[in-house]
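Take a careful look at the sequence and tokenised backbone pasted below. I need to know what the token row says about the fold.
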Amino acid sequence: MKDKFPEIYKNKIENLKSKIQNDFYYHADAKTNEDKKRNDDESQVRNREEPDRISLMKKINNIFKRPDYVYQADVNIMYKNGENIEEKIVGVKDNYLISKDGSRIYIDNISDIK
């Protein structure tokens, strides 16, 4: 499936001819050290937050997949501020859980759910 393209497509721009090209030209090799450091910092922060969110979403999906779930599930929600609440949830949509009384419980505010 990989076709060999003529050499004209493989040429690399060695030097930039004007200031405008320098400002608007992007190439993977043209990243500055500051950009690389900023991207590394952002990816480290994302990597710390992602597993927590992923494991939380797995827990929520497992609650709704249980055989005893019919219409509502009694759950214990631990918020990030340390508050612990028993709640009856009936569904999940986008970024929040829907409780039996119709209130929204945002997933971003939850640290753990059982």
User: Anything to note?
Assistant: The two ends are 49 Å apart (CA to CA).
